């Protein structure tokens, strides 16, 4: 199956200011806006919001 731009690879950067990132994929048809997920930041040592960067 060919990879296309419908499900691109995105980087999620921590809003805690630590610079930690997660890499994931998203479906642009279901989530056309920037994605925000609540995940664990090991540098900060707690759960924080991670926002999609472009």
Automatic annotation (TrEMBL):
GO terms for molecular function: structural constituent of ribosome. GO terms for cellular component: cytosolic large ribosomal subunit. InterPro entries: Ribosomal_bL33, Ribosomal_bL33_CS, Ribosomal_bL33_sf, Ribosomal_zn-bd. GO terms for biological process: translation. Keywords: Ribonucleoprotein, Ribosomal protein. The keyword Ribonucleoprotein applies. Gene3D superfamilies: Ribosomal protein L33 (2.20.28.120). It comes from the Bacteria. The keyword Ribonucleoprotein applies. SUPFAM superfamilies: Zn-binding ribosomal proteins (SSF57829). Belongs to the bacterial ribosomal protein bL33 family. This is Large ribosomal subunit protein bL33. It comes from Streptomyces ambofaciens (strain ATCC 23877 / 3486 / DSM 40053 / JCM 4204 / NBRC 12836 / NRRL B-2516). The gene is rpmG.
């Amino acid at each position: 199956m060919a990879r296309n731009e419908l499900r691109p690879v995105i980087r999620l950067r921590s809003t805690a200011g630590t610079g930690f990132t997660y890499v994931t994929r998203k479906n642009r048809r279901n989530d056309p806006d920037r994605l925000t997920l609540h995940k664990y930041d090991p540098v900060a040592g707690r759960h924080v919001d991670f926002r999609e960067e472009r």
